[in-house]
Design brief:
The protein has seven helices and 16 strands. The chain is of the alpha/beta class and 343 residues long. Strands 13-12-14-11-15-16 form a six-stranded parallel beta sheet, sandwiched between helices. It has a five-stranded mixed barrel with strand order 3-6-9-8-10. A two-stranded antiparallel ribbon has the order 4-5. It is globular and about 60 Å long.
């Protein structure tokens, strides 16, 4: 039996039974997304690090044992990968999602190569899956919580920074902020960003049994989105931001975005330029989604921000401006600001 006491446990295993109470199981049953596996590192690639449950990025070396979760990844600026049963795999994220990379951005190096040694089994010898540790969906609160969503034109458009601006603004106003990462691929980076910004309560898709959301049935994602909002309300959050990963053209993101009018009070669109703002607002309007403001990387340039304001007719609010008071005004309803894109 392999000793797992020195294995490197990834962020996606947070909340799982302590390492000393787990063992290496067999490979008799094909793994499914969400199943926890033990793998050996054959070649270190990518960033060469694995984020543990506490957020520390542990350096990987050839021969290491790692524990992660089977899953898919959709990242236009990084790896595209899929769960494919078999002994050979890649580390798709530093958070510990394991699958097979089929393409990657030219700015990325080849991912870390792994050999799947077996399932991670618990004290009862049953293979472990994130579903086994998922948080139950709470009952609906008596009143619909106050919530805004942040969606983006693409990966790295400034969605998390925008969400952080909202959280800081609410915290400064004396509200109790909560944040949910509704879709994406398992990593602690956004969770830490929310907490640093002032969030009192945080949840994400990992808490609801998914290492990543790409490839899961849309019905499950829709139910999880509402469950995350309601869980934050039950935890005590009085103002909630729901962040959807990737861009509006990604299948799951676009489908969930169409359901946002039933879940939240409005949307802040994060974009990188004015053209993306124009196209994004048009797409959201066609879906019946109420766009309250534009934010994201476009606000880094005053000229770009003015272009976005002119073409959309919406306030263009930097994360700093959200933190300085605009976040509270957005939560209260539409705002008409005389100037756009304040830093």
């Amino acid at each position: 039996m392999r000793d797992l006491s020195t294995a490197k446990w990834s962020h996606v295993t947070r909340g799982v039974t302590a390492p000393g109470r787990c063992r290496l199981g067999g490979l008799a049953t094909p793994h499914r997304p969400g199943d926890l596996v033990v793998a050996g590192v054959d070649r270190v690639g990518g960033g060469g690090r694995l984020e543990d449950a506490h957020g520390r990025r542990v350096r990987l070396r050839t021969g290491d044992l790692v524990v992660g979760a089977c899953g898919n990844r959709y990242a236009t600026d990084s790896y595209e990968g899929y769960h494919r049963p078999g002994p050979r795999a890649h580390l798709l994220t530093s958070g510990g999602v394991i699958g097979t990379a089929v393409s990657w951005h030219t700015g990325c190096t080849a991912p870390t190569e792994l050999t799947i040694l077996g399932a991670l089994a618990g004290e009862d010898d049953r293979p472990l899956s994130l579903d086994r540790f998922a948080r139950p969906a709470p009952p609906p609160p008596a009143e619909r919580p106050r919530a805004l969503a942040v969606v983006g034109s693409s990966m790295n458009a400034g969605k998390t920074t925008t969400a952080a601006g909202l959280l800081t603004g609410w915290a400064r106003a004396g509200l109790v902020p909560g944040a949910a990462k509704v879709t994406g691929t398992g990593s602690g980076k956004d969770r830490w960003a929310y907490l640093d910004a002032g969030a009192r309560h945080v949840t994400d898709f990992l808490d609801f049994g998914m290492p990543s959301t790409f490839g899961y049935p849309v019905e499950r994602l829709l139910a999880a989105m509402t469950a995350m909002r309601d869980a934050l309300a039950h935890d005590g959050a009085g103002a909630i931001v729901l962040e959807l990963a990737d861009g509006l053209l990604q299948h799951e993101t676009r489908t969930l975005t169409a359901a946002l009018p039933e879940v939240c009070d409005g949307v802040v669109l994060a974009v990188g330029d004015a053209l993306a703002a124009s196209a994004g607002v048009d797409l959201l309007s066609a879906l019946g989604v109420r766009v309250l403001a534009v934010s994201g990387l476009v606000t880094a340039g005053p000229l770009a921000a003015r272009e976005a304001a002119a073409v959309t007719g919406l306030p263009v609010l930097s994360p700093a401006r959200l933190a300085d008071g605009a976040a509270v005004e957005l939560l209260a309803g539409p705002v008409a600001l005389a100037t756009a894109g304040g830093r």
